[in-house]
Amino acid sequence: MNPRYLLAFAVLTPILSCAAQEANKLTEARAAVPETTAPASTSASATNVDQDYVIGPLDVLTVNVWKQEALSGTLLVRPDGMISMSLIGDVQAASFTPAQLGGQISAKLKKYVQEPNVTVVVSQIHSKVVYLLGEVGKKGPIDMAPGMTLLEAISMGGGPTDYANTKKMYILRNEGGKHLKIPVRYKEALKGNQSCNVPLKPGDTIVIP
User: Fold this and answer.
1) Are residues 116 and 148 both part of a single domain?
2) Which of 32, 98, 116, 156 is least surrounded by CB atoms within 10 angstroms?
3) Residue where one domain finishes, among candidates 93, 124, 155
4) Arithmetic mean of pLDDT over the chain
């Protein structure tokens, strides 16, 4: 072998050996440090969905079981109100809030997972609708989106027609057995006044004369 190669080999070998030893020490040190990341809260609801929102058939849920990717994922609530999960099978989802459902799933998973931490988020709402009537591009029911507002609903309906009297727009709402007529300041909402961009509730009817 060429003497120059032998010399280079003799010089590099100790260096590479030291580097490998340092890398091993670093790996061992990292492994010795306990994990301090706090688990996600056992929970509850999407940012734009009211915490009291009641899940219904055909809603889409994102279920996250902390540190359990195989048990986490996006689930459709079946027409019978159930969802299906690995290990625990069918779980009743409809008629419960996300927090209540998260608690149910956690209780069922305790047989298989130590201290399961479950987060349930409503990612799509299909069980609840609002209605558009009058001078609007598309009349009839539209699926609610999480946190849907007046402007979002009207936009999904194609917006007011050229004949619409937006000054007399209002929302019909059934609340606690009472029929409410809520005036709407549409132009103020368009200008960015968030207090006029009314958050909608399932079953609301937006009337555009």
Assistant:
1) no
2) 32
3) 124
4) 80
Distances 189 to 97, 142, 185, 202 between C-alpha atoms, Å: 30, 20, 6, 20
In degrees to the nearest 10, what's the CA dihedral of 131, 134, 135, 136?
A: 10
Contacts 24+ apart (CB under 8 A), 181-186: 184/150, 186/150, 186/154, 186/160
- Domain with residue 180: its CATH number is 3.10.560.10
Contact status, residue 47 vs residue 90, Cβ threshold 8 Å: no
What's the CATH number where 99 sits? 3.30.1950.10
Domain that holds residue 102: 60-124
65 in helix, strand or coil? strand
Q: 49 and 98 in contact (C-beta within 8 Å)?
A: yes
Residues 135/208, Cβ–Cβ less than 8 Å: yes
